[in-house]
Amino acid sequence: MAPVVHRARPKYAAALPSPACLHELRVPGEFAARLGGEDGAAAAVVLLVSPLGKVWREELRRAGGGGGPWQLGGGWAGFAAAHGVEAGWSVVFRFERRGVATVRAFDAAGCLARFCTPHAGVAAGKSRPRFIRLLHTDDLEKMRIPDKFVQEHLTENYPSSQKAMILSPLGKFWRVELGRHQSGMLLGDGWARFLTAHDLSEGHILVFRYEDNMVFTVETFMQNGCLKEYEAEAADMTDDAIGPSSVPQQGVKELVVSPVKKKRKTRNENTCLEVYGNKPNLSPISSKKVASQKKLVSTVPRHSFTKRITRHDITSLIAVKKSICSSVGLLGTCEITMKMSMGNTRSWPVLFKMANNFGYITGQGWKRFCCESKLKEGDHCTFSVIETTVWHVTVVSS
């Protein structure tokens, strides 16, 4: 099995559609085992660190007298009542260590609930805004951002920004169009491709965290509520993904794409809602030209993908995923013009062909490009689609 890109702390997201969930909350066996639900055991004691900083002693037990699924019972109803959690809300549990989990609560609008009287010792301050979404059929083409979230956090940036940037669990930036509709603000063009690329569908749960300047990070949860993990091989997926997340930055022969450049104020991550803050490094990829060390203008091509060059790529052909071909309009045999500098007239015409499940670049033009650009095995090439048949190529030496 391929290695996982990264292993975040286990989490469990649960929608609370009915009052019954406020008395007994079902917990998937995978997460229950982390907390202390042993095979063959009927019950276990767990500690929940509430949004107010108070520690609640809860019972994790099996339904049906010991033979059923795991569920939180006992003091769960008291926990929900003490925090104003109602039917229609959602909660996210984060595993801290065996027998201990922290809890976040999201209101009926899907927004992170705020508790303004934190427990003594818990610092009050600003946290990054979040909202949660259980995907329904209507969300698979366009997804509505909660009105409350838009009013509180996005009004200043819209309509000056017509696009959102989403940092996926694979570490890739995705551009998604924003649209205004009578029903509110929607994630539109690019959203369906994002879902497809991340194998998301009806029943999955997404938690969005707003970083600033229309940039979001997203966590994805499976239909059973457990945090979804992705295989390393999936990181090669590109479609609307922008920029390589782990390409070495030394030896750059040309422009390296920078997905986003923005300034952000340092914020206090400890809040009345968050007991254990976890601040990831979201530094954008910088753009540099090695010869002069001058900063270049950030560019964000609509489609780009990066490949590590093999000997076969140089001597024969280089494959292009079918999803990329269809998304940029490559449907059959044609000629693509490759350029290594958009300000230079030098270009290489190469032959493109389609097979059943992929496209590929081949022929004398491609071999000439490899030779004259001094492309070698182990180099990383980023192909940025400027137009369907005009591609900008960045080469990062190995």
From TrEMBL:
Domain TF-B3: 25-109, 128-224, 335-398
GO CC field: nucleus
SMART domains per record: B3 (SM01019)
Subcellular location: Nucleus
DNA-binding listed as a keyword: yes
Pfam families documented for this protein: B3
InterPro entries: B3_DNA-bd, DNA-bd_pseudobarrel_sf, REM_fam
Keyword hit for Nucleus: yes
Regions annotated as coiled coil: none
Sorted UniProt keywords: DNA-binding, Nucleus, Repeat, Transcription, Transcription regulation
Gene Ontology molecular functions: DNA binding
Protein's name in the database: TF-B3 domain-containing protein
